[in-house]
Amino acid sequence: MNPDEAVPSKDRPALAWVVRIGLVLVGLGPFVPPATSGIPGLGFVGEAFEAWFAFQCHRDPGRSLHLFGRALPVCVRCLGIYAGLGLGGLVAWPRLGTWALRIWVGSAALVMILDVLSEGTGLHSEWPLLRLVTGILLAYPVGVALVQAARHG
């Protein structure tokens, strides 16, 4: 084969569906501990998620969404990241080229960093909705790209 010829990509819809389902489950992850607490036989599932969340998130209850009187096991920004991965896997659109993905993720990361810095320096107070949106904007294109990579290699 000529080295200048492009290698045809393989269409793997089954793998793409597995990745999509996995990402949607990841997106729902923060809701698993409250949903399984107190249910006999499912406590270990919630505990496994709790252990992961304790590892990767500061879990400040003041920066967490509260449902039914209980704080979710992640802060609002991490919730946005999980939700963004789940939504990206579920919707899997738009199809992103390498540069579009880099620009989107880089821009979203910059907006998130600016939010963290402006809040940390006192330029604005805590805005939970902005934290949620910046998390979603950062993770959504990653979820889309993972599904595309699974499908087309």
Explain what this protein looks like in three dimensions:
The structure is a single chain. With 153 residues, this protein is mostly helical. It has one domain (13-152). It is 65% helix and 7% strand. The protein is built from 6 helices and 2 strands, in the order αααββααα. The protein has a two-stranded antiparallel ribbon. Strand 1 (64-67) and strand 2 (70-75) form a beta hairpin. Helix 1 (13-28) runs antiparallel to helix 6. The longest helix has 25 residues, at 128-152. The protein is flat. The model has no long low-confidence stretch (mean pLDDT 93).
In helices, the fraction of residues equals: 55-70%
- Counting structural domains, the number is 1
Structural class: mainly alpha
Strand content: 5-15%
Shape type: flat
Tell me the major beta sheet. Answer: 2 strands, antiparallel
How many helical elements? 6
The first-to-last residue Cα distance is: 19 Å
Calculate Rg over CA atoms.
18 Å
| Strand arrangement, major sheet | 1-2
Unreliable stretches: none
| Element pattern in H and E | HHHEEHHH
Features:
153 residues, mainly alpha, 6 helices
Brief account:
This protein has 153 residues and is mostly helical. Helix content is 65%, strand content 7%.
Summarize the topology:
Elements: H1 13-28, H2 32-36, H3 43-56, E1 64-67, E2 70-75, H4 76-91, H5 98-120, H6 128-152
Antiparallel strand pairs: 1-2
